[in-house]
Design brief:
alpha/beta, globular, Rossmann fold, about 15% strand, about 375 residues, 6-stranded parallel sheet, two-stranded antiparallel ribbon, 3 domains
Length: about 375
């Protein structure tokens, strides 16, 4: 079966919605299927009035999560109670949107069978039926990624195998403003973004080198515990880095290793140690006109990204004094990053109202750099 790149999923989901067809997405774990579906649903909600999104985790569900049958003491008969979370044609026949069923192949077979009737638009006891304007998008890891084979009929689903690549992953990390040192590390070592095949496929040797026997045993043990480098685990590390910085406490290297494994984790820990020598945001703000500007472009990139991502609106004066010392491209990078951050959360950081930003926007040199970057 040919695969679809994950960046194309929003288009495919929109196509399925327009056609009124259900869709099941399969891939190896941790490439961002769930998050991509949610993002696509948010975009569609901006364009389709009344568009809804109903997530449901099949992996932890049981048959009673669709419809429960309870005795009615007054009549002595069983009464049917449909799930109020699922859109119901009996209550809201004009509902439209997406029901997202996660880990559908990981669910209990009896649960999946009950959900099948709902997914197919069939009536369940005269109490529950999927509205015609609602489609089901299901997601699951591949059968080969499971401890045991589970098979159910999915005849009412189109099936798409999904994949991602380093370029798309780096773009996601950049747009999500991941911790700058981590973002630069992944750019420098893109083969370490996801090492799933190396951990779980014994026939796939580590790229470009032969791991030692001890390392292979260690990776095999980590694999049994569900530890490997992937976008989900790197995102957790980014959040840990921001939290450690906010709390002014050192980042424990073992937190890194526990997320991505020892072999990859040690490489990141070693890499990030190089950046301890560059000036911190606090040091930049304390002496913006005198702090040393790194000569190495990687170090300067991280320094500028740190400043743009961590300063407060009240820090704009000293920040601008430092930024104005930079060469054109780096000046533009710093300003663009702050603008992007402000657009995401104006309540947390509002650059638009500062006089420093207004001065930059009147600077012909800055305007030229912005136009050249478009």
């Amino acid at each position: 079966m040919s695969a679809v790149h994950i960046k194309q999923l929003p288009r495919e989901i929109a196509l399925s919605y327009a056609a009124g067809t259900n869709l099941i997405l399969t891939s190896k774990p941790g490439i961002g299927k769930s998050q991509t579906v949610f993002g696509a649903a948010q975009t569609m909600a901006e364009r389709v009035e009344g568009f809804g999104y109903w997530p449901f985790d099949i992996g932890t569900a049981n048959p009673n999560d669709v419809c429960a049958y309870m005795p009615d003491l007054a009549t002595g008969k069983l009464a049917v109670y449909p799930n109020s979370v699922l859109p119901n044609a009996y209550d809201t026949p004009d509902a439209k949107g997406i029901v997202f069923e996660d880990e559908v192949m990981n669910g209990d077979p009896s649960t999946v069978k009950v959900f099948q009737k709902y997914n197919n638009g069939e009536d369940i006891s005269g109490k529950l039926r999927k509205p015609n304007g609602v489609i089901v998008i299901a997601a699951s890891n591949r059968m080969m990624d499971k401890a045991g084979a589970m098979q159910q009929s999915r005849a009412r689903f189109e099936q798409l195998d999904v994949y991602s690549d380093a370029g798309h992953n780096l773009s996601f990390a950049d747009n999500a403003s991941w911790w700058p040192v981590l973002r630069k590390f992944l750019e420098k070592f893109p083969d370490l973004i996801d090492n799933y095949e190396n951990i779980f496929d014994p026939a796939n040797a580590a790229r470009g080198r032969d791991p030692s026997k001890d390392e292979m045993l260690e990776q095999a043990e980590e694999g049994k515990r569900g530890i490997w480098a992937n976008m989900r685990s790197w995102e957790r590390i980014s959040k840990l880095e921001y939290a450690a910085n906010s709390l002014a406490i050192p980042m424990n290297p073992f937190r890194v290793l526990s997320n991505v494994g020892k072999a990859v984790g040690q490489q990141y820990v070693t890499y990030r140690a190089m950046y301890d020598k560059i000036a911190s945001v606090e040091e930049i703000l304390k002496d913006p006109k005198g702090v040393t500007i790194p000569s190495k472009i990687d170090e300067l990139f991280v320094m500028v990204c740190m400043l743009s991502q961590l300063i407060k609106s009240t820090d704009m004066k000293p920040a601008s004094q430092f930024i104005d010392r930079l060469q054109g491209d780096m000046r533009a990078l710093a300003i663009r990053r702050m603008v992007k951050r402000s657009q995401k959360n104006r309540a947390e950081f509002d650059i638009g109202g500062t006089k420093e930003y207004q001065a930059w926007m009147k600077d012909p040199a800055i305007q030229d750099l912005f136009m050249a970057a478009r």
